[in-house]
Amino acid sequence: MKKLLALLLAMTMVMALVACGGNSGQSNDTPPATQDQPQEPPADAAPADGGEITLWTYPIGDWGKEEKVKAITDAFTADTGISVKVEYLAYADGDDKVNSAITANAAPDLIMEGPERLVTNWGDKGYLVDLSDMFDDGDKSEINAAAMTACTHANGAVYEYPLVVTAHCMAINLNAFKEAGADQYLDLENHTWTTENFIKAVDALYAHFNAPVGAVYCKGQGGDQGTRALVNNLYGGTFATAAHDKYTWDDPKNIQALEQLKGMPGIAFDASLEGGDEIKVFYQGILKMAFCWNIAQQLNPNQADTGAGLTASGEEIVFMGFPSESGKPALQGGIWGFGIFDNKDQTKIDNAKTFIKWMCDSEHTVDAVKTANYFAARSAAEGTDLSDIWADNEIMNEYQVLMPYLGDYYQVTKGWAGARTEWWTMLQKVGEGADIASTVATYAGNANANAG
Question: With a cut of 70, which residues of the chain have pLDDT below it?
Answer without folding.
Answer: 1-49
